[in-house]
């Protein structure tokens, strides 16, 4: 893709702070540095989001996540946790439309980062949960 900032980074047309590279992925520091070491891992093949991945590419890309995670853990021994986030489509906060995985080191509860998971358990009966699961199971992709 000619106008993709991540494709340009992968092709060395735009500078980056490279962390890891092999024939399938390129990992580099996110310029926002939500926390120290915040890294993006991107497939070298342009795919917009998780919905465009072929199974083989998904396996190759996601297999690299632990490699970079372990490097972060060794580089920052004070790290107490790690968030791994993959946003897909604009409503889910994807801002660059070349699939990428955020690895965000966590050092303290007061880091400038948060995720909120609402608990809507009381809004769904067991029957409704069974129907939701059935609706997903019935799709051709599974």
Explain the overall architecture:
The chain is an alpha+beta fold. It has a single domain (5-137), classed as 2-Layer Sandwich (HIT family, subunit A), CATH 3.30.428. Helices cover 27% and strands 18% of the residues. Strands 1-2-3-5-4 form a five-stranded antiparallel beta sheet, with helices on one face. The model has no long low-confidence stretch (mean pLDDT 95). GO terms for molecular function: catalytic activity. The active site is at 100 (tele-amp-histidine intermediate). Residues 5-115 form the HIT domain. Pfam families: HIT.
Q: Determine the CATH superfamily.
A: HIT-like
| Average pLDDT rating | 95
* Global Rg: 18 Å
CATH architecture: 2-Layer Sandwich
Helical stretch tally: 4
Structural category: alpha+beta
What is the succession of H and E elements?
HEEEHHEEH
* Count of domains: 1
Output the CATH topology.
HIT family, subunit A
Query: Which stretches are poorly predicted, pLDDT < 50 over at least 5 residues?
Result: none
Shape annotation: globular
Could you name the CATH class?
Alpha Beta
Q: Termini distance?
A: 30 Å
Q: Within the largest sheet, what's the order of strands?
A: 1-2-3-5-4
How many β strands by DSSP?
Answer: 5
- Level of helix content? 25-40%
Largest sheet: 5 strands, antiparallel
Portion in strands: 15-25%
Topology summary:
Elements lengths: L4 H6 L7 E4 L3 E5 L9 E5 L11 H9 L1 H11 L5 E5 L15 E6 L19 H12 L5
Antiparallel strand pairs: 1-2, 2-3, 3-5, 4-5
